[in-house]
Amino acid sequence: MKQTCTGYESNLGMSRRGWLSRFGMGLGGWALSDMLGGRLLARTTGVDENSKSRGVMKALHHPAKAKRVIFLFQSGGPSQIDLLDYKPHLNKVQGEQLPDSIRKGQRLTGMSGNQSSLPLVGSPFKFQQHGQSGQWFSELLPYTAKIADEMCVVKSMYTEAINHGPGVTFMQTGSQFSGRPSMGAWLDYGLGSANENLPSFVVMVTKSKGGQPLVSRLWGSGFLPARHQGVRFRSGKDPVLYLNNPGGINPSSRHRMLDALQQLHQLQLTDKVDPQLETRIAQYELAFKMQSSIPDVVDVSSESKETLELYGPDVAKPGSFAANCLLARRLAERGVRFIQLYHPGWDQHGGLPGGLGTQCRETDQPSAALVQDLKRRGMLEDTLVVWAGEFGRTNYCQGVFNGNNFGRDHHPRCYSMWMAGGGIKPGFSYGETDEYGYNVAKNGVHVHDLQATLLHLLGIDHERLTYRHQGRRYRLTDVHGHVVEPILA
Predict the structure, then answer these.
(1) How do 68-74 and 383-388 pair as beta strands?
(2) Closest Cα to residue 339, out of 148, 61, 67?
(3) What is the C-alpha radius of gyration for the chain, rounded to an integer number of angstroms?
(4) How far is CA 245 from the centre of its chain?
(5) Parallel, antiparallel, or unpaired for β 467-469 and 445-446?
(6) What is the 3-state secondary structure of 243-278?
(7) What is the pTM (predicted TM-score) of this model?
(8) 3-state class of 399 per DSSP?
(9) What does the DSSP 8-state code read for residue 228?
(10) In which element (H, E) is residue 440 found?
(11) Cα 112 to Cα 90: distance, rounded to the nearest angstrom
(12) How big, in percent rounded to 5, are the helix, strand and coil portions of the chain?
């Protein structure tokens, strides 16, 4: 049986802070051991010596190829047929009915399940091969096509979820039901933070976008301690809510208040173990440090004109996807381990040609720029960039097909995504769908397989990072998942 890293022992005996408060050398000895022992721990186990809040893992399960992840989540379900999975056969059979031999009795959503006709629709967009790898890209992705030789395109993703809420939740937490920890929370729990003054897990959502609602539980900690949840950055003068001092309170008085509050908390901890109180103390400390670190992160005035132009004109608009991509790179430079960008609006049930074009104009250049920017700074080799949605789109038209303005319904049986850097094989295409673009034909990759692979690249065995809750040990991949070895560099 594999040895696991579990949080169960945190419920036994007194808490870490309670034990330290009674230990003879006190906090002074703790500080000295942290400075000296942390460096020794890093040399002997592979844990980052700069981590001031180490997770439950005392050592990596195997050598890591990535130190951090930037996940560009395209919420709504991008159409793989019109972007990454070239299907010329669909154009030849356009207007014909979806064959029963291809559908194989698969359930459809309520939005198209009652249609009397399911006419096939090929992509109206031109596809070309790019780079030495010869990967196929739609004309809607001209900038992404330029980094073809940096990317691994997976064309055989699949999921059980057929609607947005369960689909997004499944991708983020490994379960279609709410209440489980998100990927970023699992990483913070296992590996801890690699910086002193910023969260380990940061979330940004593109401003002023419609689409399906994105709620905080998607980056929550679930049944893990609350300190592992993601911190959302917003556009505007206050990127993190309630972080700045209220009127009449200066940093000095705020510091004295926090010192006094911590003394009261420590007194209580000497008498009673209270994990929630410990979390609150840690969050107060981090919030105070973030008052000085956050303004430095969001101030892009030091960025060169060349860099700003690389990300495109929207980089000057706070809260845009381009601006968030640039901030993601700046956060990665400063030791943030998991950075999640959400871009809603990919749900084209109708008006797909126009709607998909708008989505790509907003995201294509910034996504490619992020990869290029990381590479020229020497960070791509240990930064894993992921671009994916919760599912794909159907090869048939939702509603009446008039040849010009059509839509596609949700499709969980196959869809496409791409990854770059962080130990992923570059210039590589993995998996195949059938000629209709409806079913996986070769090398299927389940959502849990993707999650297992991400953890593997970070030095974590997905079966060993667990947390005991309600009588069983949980993990991100539940009881499934296999590392997709062929896409590893």
Answers:
(1) parallel
(2) 67
(3) 24
(4) 30
(5) unpaired
(6) CCCCCCCCHHHHHHHHHHHHHHHHHHHCCCCCHHHH
(7) 0.86
(8) coil
(9) G
(10) strand 440-442
(11) 19
(12) 40, 15, 45
Burial 449-476 (b: 16+ CB within 10 A, else e): bbbbbbbbbbbbbbbbbbbbbeeeebbb
- Token pair 């920017």 is found at 373
Assigned token pair, 238:
């206050």
Quick count: other Cβ atoms within 10 Å of Cβ 252?
Answer: 8
Give the torsion sign (CA, 427, 432, 433, 436).
Answer: positive
What are the average pLDDT values for consecutive 10-residue runs of the chain, which has 489 residues?
53 45 39 37 40 80 98 98 98 96 91 92 98 98 98 98 97 97 98 91 92 92 93 82 69 76 78 70 67 82 97 96 98 97 97 96 98 98 98 95 89 98 98 98 98 98 97 96 98
Using alpha carbons, select from 149, 141, 154, 150 the residue that is nearest to residue 365.
Answer: 141
Distances (CA, A) of 358 to 67, 350, 409: 33, 14, 18
Which are the contacts of 241, defined by CB distance < 8 A and separation ≥ 6?
232, 234
- Domains of the chain by range and CATH? 8-243+298-487 (3.40.720.10)
CB 460 within 8 A of CB 469: no
Amino acid at 381: E
